[in-house]
Specification:
Chain B: This is ABC-2 type transport system permease protein. Chain B: Keywords: Membrane, Transmembrane, Transmembrane helix. Chain B: It comes from Actinophytocola algeriensis. The complex is a heterotrimer. Chain A is α/β, with parallel strands linked by helices. Chain A folds into two domains: about 240 residues, P-loop containing nucleotide triphosphate hydrolases (Rossmann fold, 3-Layer(aba) Sandwich), CATH 3.40.50; about 60 residues, no CATH class. In chain A, a hairpin with a 2-residue loop joins β11 and β12. The model of chain B has no long low-confidence stretch (mean pLDDT about 90). Chain B has one domain. By secondary structure, chain B is an all-alpha fold. Chain B is built from twelve helices and no strands. By secondary structure, chain C is mostly helical. Chain C has twelve helices and two strands. In chain C, β1 and β2 form a beta hairpin. Classes of the chains: A alpha/beta, B mainly alpha, C mainly alpha. Chains B and C meet through α2 and α9 of B and α2, β1 and α9 of C.
Chain lengths: ~325, ~270, ~260
C-alpha cells in the first residue's frame, strides 16, 4: 500500500466569543478517525461537502499538518518528520494556491524546480516534453505566470507537480473555476497519467463529473469520517439509486394506469417519467409498450449528485 | 461650506474607522508594546546626554522624560506611516469611483483618519505614557490650561499629518511609483519633526527654517513643546497658531492638487 | 548541496530587478533611512561630547559593530518577518511542500538586495571607528574584530527568526518583533551604562544585547565593564550568539509543527 492511514485525526481548538470579554475554547475534530489504504497506481476520488475534512486529510498526507492522532504513512515515510524526503516522492496541486513563481516565465519556474528537486536533466527534459505535447504548453511557456489565464496556469501547475516523477500525485480541486474546455484538457491529461499506471493519484473535488470520468474508487467523508469507500456502482447499490425511464407517447397517459415494478413519477403532456422499483428496465418497457402507443423512450442512469447529496444528508442525521 | 448632512456622513465615517481599529486588538497591543520599548531606549539615551550638564538644548531631565514618552504615545496618534489604501487605489485607477462620490475625497480621508486617531489616543497613547509615568519622573504642566492647549495642538498635528499624507498619496497621479515620494516624506518628517530627537538640538538657523518653512515640526515638536511649557504660554500659543496656519495652507494645497487630479482624469480618462 | 538555494536566490533577484526604477529608489532611500539613526547618535553626541561615561570614539566603535551586524542579519534573514503573510494566506503550505528547508526558502523567496546598501554603510562606519578608537591591538583582538560583527549578525538573525516564529500562534502581534529587532539594534549601539534599572538587566544581560557590541568593544578597548561583568565574559559574544541561534532554531521547529494551515 502506497498510502496507509489508521484512525487519523486532526483536532483544532476554536476560540469563540462568549459575551464581551470572555472567550470559550472548544475542540473541533476536522478529521475524526480516517482509516484508508490506497494501492500503487490507484486513482482515488476523495469527496465531501465543504468543511468535511478533505483538505485537512490531504495536508496531513503531504506533511503540511501534524496529525493529532492515528498513524499515517505515504510511500513508506511518515509525512511530518520525513517531510523533505517525502516532498521528492510526491507532487501536489492545490487549485487555489500556486506553486509557481509569480514574476518568472513558466519555463524558468520549471528549470528552477529541476534544481530544487535535483532532477537529472535528461529525465526533466523527457517529462517536460511529455507534458508540453499533452497540455499544449508551448504557446505560453515564456509568459510570466502572473499573466497566465487560470486554465493556462493550472496546466502549468500540473506540469510542475509531475516534473520530478512523483510516485503519488495529490490534487486538491484541480478543476475549480476552470472553463469547460480547460476542464476537459485537465481531465484528459489526468486520464492519460492514470493509464500509465505508475503514478497513484488522490483527487479531491466538488465537481463530481471529475470523479465519474476518472476514478474507479470513491471515498466520501463527512464531518471528518469516512461514510463510503468503494466504487461508484457500489455507492449506487448501497443507496439504492433508482434508474428512470422517460417515455414520449403518441397519446395521453391514461389516468390511473399502474405498471408492476415501476412508479409513475410525473406526467407532462404526452411525456411520462417512471422510476424502476424492483423490475428490470426490459420488463417495464415491455409492459409499457403493451399498455400505450410509444413514440420514443430513454433510460436514465441515476445522477451521482443526487446520490451524494442524499449521502451527506444521511450522515448528518 | 459644509452642510449638516455632510457633517453627519463624515462623523459616521470617523466612527466606523474608530470601531474598525477597535477590532484589531492584537495589533493594538503589539504597537503599544513596541512604542513602550522604544520609549525606554530613547528616554535613557536622552537622559544620559543631559546627565553631563544637567540639561539638553534647554530641556531639563523631567522635560526630556515627558518629551520622549508623550512623543512615543503620539507616534500612533499622529500617524506618519499611514495606510497604503489610497495610493494603491490611485495606482489601480479605482480612485475614479471615490472621486465621483457625492462626499469629497479629501474630507472622507481626513474624517477616517480622525476616527483612527481617536482610537489611538485611547489605546496607543495611554499605554506608553502610563508606563513612562510609573518608571520615570515626568514634567507635569504648571498651568491647567496647558492641557487644553495640548489637546488642541494634538488635533492640529493629526490634521497636518493627514493632509501631508493625502498630498503624498495624490502624487501617485503623476509619478510612476509613489514609493519615492513616500520615502522622501518619511525621511523628512522623521528628522524634521522631533521624532528622532528634539529639533532644538540642531543649529538655530536650521531650527528656524524648519519651523517657518516646513510643516514637519507641527507634527510632533509643537504639541510636545506646548506640553512641557517650553518658552511659556505665549510661546505655546504661537506654536498652535503656526499649526493652524499650516493646516490652512495644506488643505488649500490639497484642494488645488485634487482639482488638478480630477481634471487629469476627465481629460485622459484615467 | 547549496545549488538549489543559489538558484532560488538568483531567480528571486532576477524577478525583482524587473522593476529597475523602484529597485533604485528602494536602495537609495533604505540607505538614507538608516543613516538617520546614525545622524541621531551624532546629533546627541554633539550636544555634550560623551555618553554614559564613554567618549565619542569609544561609542563610535559600539555603533560600528551594531551598524554592521544588524544589516548583515537583516539582509540574510530579515525576510523571515514575512512569515505572517505566508501564514495568513496559507502560502506557507507551498513552502512546506518543497524538498527544501522552509526557513531557507522563506528567507530566499523575497530576498531584498536593496538591503545590501546598509551593509556597505555599516562596514564603512566600522572601519572608521576601528581606525579612530584606542583599540589595544593584539592577535586575539584582531580575531575579535573580525568575529564580533558576524557573531552580532548571528545574534540578530536569531532574534529575527525567534520573533517571526510567534506568527505561528498569533498572526497580528507581528509588530512586537520590531521592539526586539530594531529596538535591540538601538539598545546594542549604546554603552549599557546609559540604561538603568530592570530595563538594563532585562535587555542587556537577560536578552543578551550587551553581547552584540558593548562587551566586544570593551574587550577591544581593553576596558573593564564599569557595571562589573567579569572580564572574560567580554569575549563570549560568539558563544552567546550560537546559544541564541540554537534556541531560535528549536522554537522555529516547534512553530512549524504547530502550523495550522488556513482551511480551504
Amino acid at each position: 500500500m502506497i498510502i496507509q492511514t489508521s484512525l487519523l485525526r486532526k483536532d483544532f481548538t476554536v476560540r469563540k466569543k462568549a459575551g464581551r470579554f470572555r472567550r470559550t475554547r472548544t475542540t473541533v475534530s476536522a478529521v475524526d478517525g480516517v482509516t484508508l489504504s490506497v494501492a500503487e497506481g490507484e486513482m482515488l476520488g476523495y469527496i465531501g461537502p465543504n468543511g468535511a475534512g478533505k483538505s485537512t486529510t490531504l495536508k496531513m498526507l503531504t506533511g503540511v499538518l501534524t496529525p493529532s492522532g492515528g498513524t499515517v504513512s505515504v510511500c513508506g515515510l511518515t509525512p511530518v518528520p520525513q517531510r523533505i524526503q517525502l516532498a521528492r516522492r510526491i507532487g501536489v496541486v492545490f487549485g487555489q494556491r500556486s506553486q509557481l513563481w509569480w514574476d518568472l516565465p513558466l519555463a524558468e519556474s520549471f528549470t528552477l524546480l529541476r534544481h530544487i528537486y535535483r532532477v537529472p536533466a535528461a529525465d526533466h527534459a523527457m517529462r517536460l516534453k511529455y507534458c508540453r505535447s499533452l497540455l499544449d504548453l508551448d504557446e505560453f511557456l515564456d509568459t510570466p505566470v502572473r499573466q497566465l489565464s487560470l486554465g493556462q496556469r493550472m496546466r502549468g501547475e500540473l506540469t510542475a507537480a509531475l516534473l520530478h516523477g512523483p510516485k503519488v500525485l495529490f490534487l486538491d480541486e484541480p478543476t475549480i473555476g476552470l472553463d469547460v474546455l480547460s476542464k476537459q484538457a485537465v481531465r484528459g491529461f489526468l486520464g492519460e497519467v492514470a493509464a500509465h499506471g505508475d503514478t497513484t493519484v488522490v483527487l479531491t473535488t466538488h465537481d463530481l463529473a471529475d470523479i465519474e470520468k476518472l476514478c474507479r474508487r470513491l471515498v466520501v467523508i463527512d464531518h471528518g469520517r469516512v461514510v463510503h469507500d468503494g466504487t461508484l456502482e457500489e455507492l449506487h447499490a448501497t443507496y439504492r439509486s433508482k434508474r428512470r425511464i422517460v417515455a414520449d407517447l403518441d397519446a395521453s397517459w391514461p389516468e390511473g394506469l399502474t405498471l408492476p415494478g415501476a412508479v409513475v413519477e410525473s406526467v407532462e403532456g404526452q411525456r411520462v417519467t417512471l422510476t424502476l422499483e424492483g423490475a428490470t428496465a426490459g420488463e417495464v418497457v415491455a409492459r409499457l409498450a403493451q399498455a400505450v402507443p410509444l413514440r420514443d423512450l430513454s433510460v436514465q442512469e441515476p445522477e451521482i449528485e443526487d446520490v451524494v447529496a442524499r449521502l451527506y444528508g444521511q450522515a448528518r442525521e | 461650506m459644509l452642510s449638516t448632512s455632510t457633517v453627519r456622513v463624515l462623523a459616521a465615517l470617523a466612527g466606523a474607522e474608530f470601531r474598525r481599529y477597535a477590532t484589531y486588538r492584537q495589533a493594538t497591543f503589539a504597537g503599544a508594546f513596541t512604542n513602550t520599548v522604544f520609549g525606554f531606549v530613547r528616554c535613557y539615551t536622552l537622559l544620559s546626554v543631559a546627565a553631563v550638564t544637567g540639561q539638553m538644548a534647554g530641556y531639563d531631565p523631567a522635560q526630556l522624560v515627558t518629551f520622549v514618552w508623550v512623543g512615543q504615545g503620539l507616534l500612533a496618534v499622529v500617524n506618519y506611516w499611514g495606510q497604503q489604501e489610497l495610493p494603491e487605489r490611485v495606482r489601480t485607477g479605482q480612485v475614479v469611483a471615490d472621486l465621483l462620490r457625492p462626499v469629497d475625497l479629501m474630507a472622507t480621508f481626513v474624517a477616517a483618519d480622525v476616527g483612527r486617531a481617536g482610537h489611538a489616543m485611547l489605546t496607543r497613547f495611554v499605554v506608553p505614557v502610563a508606563v513612562g509615568l510609573l518608571a520615570f519622573d515626568f514634567y507635569l504642566p504648571a498651568h491647567a490650561w496647558t492641557y487644553a492647549l495640548f489637546a488642541v495642538s494634538v488635533l492640529l498635528a493629526v490634521l497636518v499629518c493627514t493632509a501631508c499624507r493625502y498630498l503624498v498619496a495624490l502624487s501617485a497621479f503623476w509619478l510612476l511609483d509613489v514609493r519615492g515620494a513616500q520615502m522622501v516624506w518619511l525621511v523628512a518628517s522623521g528628522a524634521g519633526s522631533g521624532l528622532y530627537f528634539p529639533i532644538t538640538v540642531l543649529p538655530d538657523w536650521l531650527v528656524l527654517a524648519l519651523w517657518v518653512g516646513t510643516p514637519f515640526p507641527s507634527l510632533m515638536q509643537a504639541p510636545l513643546d506646548v506640553l512641557v511649557e517650553r518658552g511659556g504660554t505665549g510661546h505655546g500659543l504661537l506654536l498652535v497658531a503656526g499649526q493652524v496656519a499650516w493646516v490652512l495652507v495644506l488643505v488649500a494645497l490639497g484642494r488645488v492638487v485634487q482639482a488638478r487630479a480630477v481634471r487629469r482624469l476627465v481629460v485622459q480618462g484615467g | 548541496m547549496a545549488k538549489p538555494y543559489s538558484k532560488l536566490l538568483t531567480a528571486q533577484i532576477r524577478s525583482q530587478t524587473q522593476y529597475r526604477f523602484s529597485f533604485g529608489i528602494d536602495l537609495f532611500f533604505s540607505t538614507v533611512l538608516t543613516s538617520l539613526d546614525l545622524v541621531t547618535v551624532w546629533v546627541l553626541f554633539s550636544v555634550n561630547g560623551s555618553l554614559g561615561g564613554f567618549g565619542g570614539r569609544e561609542v563610535l566603535l559600539m555603533v560600528g559593530i551594531a551598524a554592521l551586524s544588524f544589516p548583515l542579519a537583516d539582509l540574510a534573514v530579515g525576510n523571515v518577518e514575512r512569515l505572517r503573510v505566508f501564514v495568513r494566506t496559507g502560502l506557507f503550505d507551498a513552502v512546506l511542500l518543497r524538498p527544501l528547508s522552509p526557513l531557507v526558502q522563506l528567507v530566499t523567496m523575497d530576498f531584498a538586495p536593496r538591503r545590501a546598501g546598509r551593509v556597505v554603510q555599516g562596514t564603512v562606519i566600522y572601519v572608521v571607528a576601528l581606525l579612530n578608537a584606542p583599540v589595544q591591538w593584539s592577535p586575539v583582538v584582531w580575531g575579535l574584530v573580525l568575529v564580533a560583527p558576524i557573531a552580532g549578525a548571528v545574534f540578530f538573525g536569531a532574534v529575527f527568526v525567534f520573533f517571526a516564529t510567534v506568527a505561528f500562534w498569533w498572526i497580528d502581534v507581528g509588530e512586537i518583533s520590531n521592539a526586539f529587532t530594531y529596538g535591540g539594534k538601538d539598545v546594542s549601539a549604546y554603552p549599557m551604562t546609559v540604561f538603568g534599572g530592570w530595563f538594563r538587566r532585562f535587555f542587556a544581560y537577560g536578552m543578551g544585547f550587551a553581547f552584540v557590541a558593548y562587551l566586544p568593544a570593551l574587550a577591544m578597548l581593553g576596558r573593564p565593564d564599569p557595571l562589573g561583568v567579569p572580564d572574560w565574559v567580554r569575549w563570549c559574544s560568539p558563544l552567546t550568539a550560537l546559544l541564541v541561534a540554537v534556541l531560535a532554531g528549536l522554537f522555529w521547529r516547534t512553530g512549524v509543527r504547530h502550523y495550522r494551515s488556513t482551511g480551504s
